Amino acid sequence: MTHPTGPRRQPKQASRALAGWIAEPAGKAALLFIAAAALTIALVVAGVQPVLRMDRAVAAHLHTVALEHPGFTHAGRIVTDWVVDPWTMRLLLAVAVVWLWHRRQRLIAVWAACTCAAEWALRGVLRWTIGRERPQWERPVDSAEFAAMPSGHAMTAAATCVLLLWLARWAALPAALLHIGVAAAVLTVAAACLTRVFLGVHWLTDTLAGSLLGTGLAMASVAAWYTAHPSRNASSAGVGAESTTRPGRPLPRSRYREPTSDSDI
Hints:
Layout: H1 10-23, H2 25-45, H3 49-68, H4 70-83, H5 86-102, H6 106-130, H7 152-170, H8 175-198, H9 204-228
Helix pairs in contact: 1-9, 2-9, 4-8, 5-6, 5-7, 6-7, 6-9, 7-8, 7-9, 8-9
């Protein structure tokens, strides 16, 4: 009697992989962020008037401020074109990828690079699919091309920041540096969202959807990494070689015991 093998086992393996992905904290967070982004996009596409009126009101107010304060407008252009520009974000991630590659951590380096490419592709597909028009002004203070939703600056900044924080934690950097990184990440995403709306090239919901999607996509990638490579951790980066669990998680009780005599110390 033959036993079922091959294709019949694949659905079970896929189900286990999905269950493992959802069980990861990053997987749960990814679902929440992606759901929030999908809701934001759905409200805009459906033409829900309170949401659209809010978009117009915020855009009009900030555009008036931009016209009245050219110094702020100039500063906003510098921030959006150089500090939080998508290519700046990709360059930062590229530096991290090269560093990982140099340390022979090539699989996670390729994983991070592929996540960045996936974010770029997803944004392009969504923009083409949604096709939302950008704000139009008689006296524009800046310009941008292609469709508006989701915001590329916000989406790339959010995805890149999450990936960099993950890689920093994976490499077991000091907690103080991680806290600084979290603060910098929040400021970076906030600056990307604010400057794009302030300069009149995006609606508020464009940046909201972009930041939520970027965060969700990066978190989904992190969860997928831990699901596919449960044994990979900071020891792979040359940190804490005695550990066999991922950073930040205690060893299972079966892996250690309290010393009971001088010979155990």
